[in-house]
Amino acid sequence: MSPATRPHEDELVARYFRPLATDPGAFRLGDDCATLSPPDGTDLVLKTDAVAAGIHFFADDPWDLVAKKALRVNLSDLAAKGARPLGYLLSIALPADWREDQLAAFSRGLAEDQAAFDVSLLGGDTIRSPDGLVVSITVLGGLPRDTIVRRGGARPGDVLYVSGTLGDSALGLALRLDPTKADAWSLSSDERDHLARRYLLPEPRLPLAEAVRRHASASMDISDGLGLDLTRMTRVSKVTATVETARLPLSTAARRALGADAELIGRIVGGGDDYEILAAIPPSAVAGFEAEARAAGVAVTPVGTVGAADTPPSFLAPDGTALVLGTSGFAHF
Amino acid sequence: MSPATRPHEDELVARYFRPLATDPGAFRLGDDCATLSPPDGTDLVLKTDAVAAGIHFFADDPWDLVAKKALRVNLSDLAAKGARPLGYLLSIALPADWREDQLAAFSRGLAEDQAAFDVSLLGGDTIRSPDGLVVSITVLGGLPRDTIVRRGGARPGDVLYVSGTLGDSALGLALRLDPTKADAWSLSSDERDHLARRYLLPEPRLPLAEAVRRHASASMDISDGLGLDLTRMTRVSKVTATVETARLPLSTAARRALGADAELIGRIVGGGDDYEILAAIPPSAVAGFEAEARAAGVAVTPVGTVGAADTPPSFLAPDGTALVLGTSGFAHF
Predict the structure, then answer these.
(1) Structural domain boundaries of chain B?
(2) Which of A28, A36, B108, B110 has the most Cβ atoms closer than 10 angstroms to its Cβ?
(3) The domains spanning B9-144 and B151-316 adopt the same CATH topology
(4) Alpha helices (H) in chain A, listed in sequence order
(5) A126 labelled binding-site residue
(6) Residue B87 — φ and ψ, nearest 5°?
């Protein structure tokens, strides 16, 4: 609350954030607001997601990766809705002991991801944090009017697909908290690095967005674990679902860890931070969805089916018995 | 980083935030993203601004006022750009010791301001803060394509107007930090309360937005003090300006304080947190602007003029000498 001023906010913005604001509507961050002129007939898709030191990332994580994760968890939601990113706004609360090299890394991380995902900074705010770094990003996406794919459209008979692999991030976090698990799970150093990286850096499935938009009856991104997120999808769709856990797509590393400790299936299904897409595809659209996913270069795997009852989903073990999971999901709270 | 889950995030959202999400595009906060369908021909105006405990407000401020301030500082920017609010997204980082009555107050404050300013919650994210409360809001406004009023359009001969009164918030903060000043400044209890309230609760000048859009050649909101913000406007407009400080609109309370301590002019011009509009009006538009401001019920006062030189603005004392201000503005950083 000190009225003492640090006169450098304008310079800080000029140095680290203006280079990211390449959209003409960002006015080079030199005005109070940005503008965006969506093409006529566009629906905007809006998402805000925040990450905080000590909660969503470790206080000593490199800031380029923190920046990328903060952007990517938002882009992941756009992908799940079938939308194309139009731009983003950034609100960053800096700890008192921030260093210029950290902010330079933050900016560099965003620049790399802007190039990777064809999106740019529209505006932002830089404040001091009461304690650790807090990054809040709002993304804006666009799609043709009335074509958004919602959570609530799953219908009995739909096939449930997930993109990529599940559980890597949760296992990466477990390793981070207890590095001795790498040996307990018989992981190679490459496998350990794979899991660690997947925790630090999710992969938003934007290349899959158009296939989702064209074919899915329901879709969402898996951020709190398949268990909890599928429960949310079935609840709002007023359906149920059955997932065969033996069909869940796993990385080599996750498969090896699961081989060493069968109980890890709970963490894989319930751990969260996957940022993969969960989509319900009508049987008639399965072939088209799979073909377009293949063309987009994103692996998709059928893991179960949607049923008619308005009850929570079931997760079946390889022997056909229902798995009772230790945790129903990972709420970041 | 604890993987421990609080399973209550969904319930918390349902209880305190869903009632605010009245726009159909918010999907009652039950989907990953919100949608917004701007009318064809609309330019979106985007702003994100964050406030943090201990930096922008006192940790013991009532949460309904914190919520209102967080929303209002963003709405103020829309007003300055001539835009109408379309909706907002909220990112809230809660301290570990948050209480339900605080969150209820936060929600109530937003509900009251939603009604006052005809805007509603489109989406949000609730996370745990590393320490104190941090609130980041992104507002979306709209206006007819290519009619945004920018900072950089001020032209020689334009008349500089400010809305409302200046300095109240800075004086209110000074009082908060040192309550004995109320006596030193000979303030009545009403006057003291007025200044304290203006610090806690800015008044976004949305009713003035249309007059600004129709008549101003440049406009911005005054958040870091007239001194710094006018300097920004003249710099990007490549002009200068002269302000007669005797013409600055002051409340009775501020006028009394200034009478007791003439040095306070520095705080009034440089203190910030005014959230009033600074607009440059071409001479031919002055009559129309004043008439529309009057019709909108917002006081506007001419305080100076724009000059041709590309130099920093001057602030003239009543005797015509240039004031050298102790501080050129209040950067929240």
Answers:
(1) 9-144, 151-316
(2) B110
(3) no
(4) 9-12, 63-80, 100-117, 168-177, 181-184, 189-200, 209-215, 226-237, 252-260, 264-270, 286-296
(5) no
(6) 165, 175
Instruction: Please indicate whether, in this complex, the C-beta atoms of B31 and A151 are within 8 angstroms of each other.
Output: yes
In this structure, what token pair is assigned to residue A200?
Answer: 């630090």
The CATH class given to the B9-144 domain equals: alpha beta
Phi-psi category of B297—alpha, beta or left, where left has phi over 0 and alpha has psi -120 to 50? left
Q: What residue of A is the nearest CA neighbor of B129?
A: A52
Does domain B151-316 match CATH 3.90.650.10? yes
Q: Give the nearest chain B residue to A38 (CA atoms).
A: B43
User: Tens-of-pLDDT digits for all 333 residues of chain B?
Assistant: 333 344 377 888 999 999 999 999 999 999 999 999 999 999 999 999 999 999 899 999 999 999 999 999 999 999 999 999 999 999 999 999 999 999 999 999 999 999 999 999 999 999 999 889 999 999 999 999 999 999 999 999 999 999 999 999 999 999 999 999 999 999 999 999 999 999 999 999 999 999 999 999 999 999 999 999 999 999 999 999 999 999 999 999 999 999 999 999 999 999 999 999 999 999 999 999 999 999 999 999 999 999 999 999 999 988 888 887 644 444 333
Minimal Cα–Cα distance from B137 to chain A, Å? Answer: 9
Compare all CA atoms of chain A with the CA of B38 and give the residue at the minimum distance.
Answer: A43
With beta carbons under 8 A apart, name residues in chain B contacting A126.
333
C-beta atoms of A81 and B45 within 8 A: no
Which amino acid makes up residue B281?
I
**How far apart, in whole angstroms, are the C-alpha atoms of residue A225 and residue A167?**
8
Q: Can you point out the beta strands (E) in chain B?
A: 34-36, 42-52, 84-94, 121-128, 134-144, 159-163, 218-222, 240-244, 276-281, 300-307, 314-316
Q: How far is B30 from chain A (nearest CA, A)?
A: 8
C-beta atoms of B52 and A130 within 8 A: yes
User: Side chain identity at A31, as an amino acid letter?
Assistant: D
Neighboring chain A residues of B225 at a CB cutoff of 8 Å: none
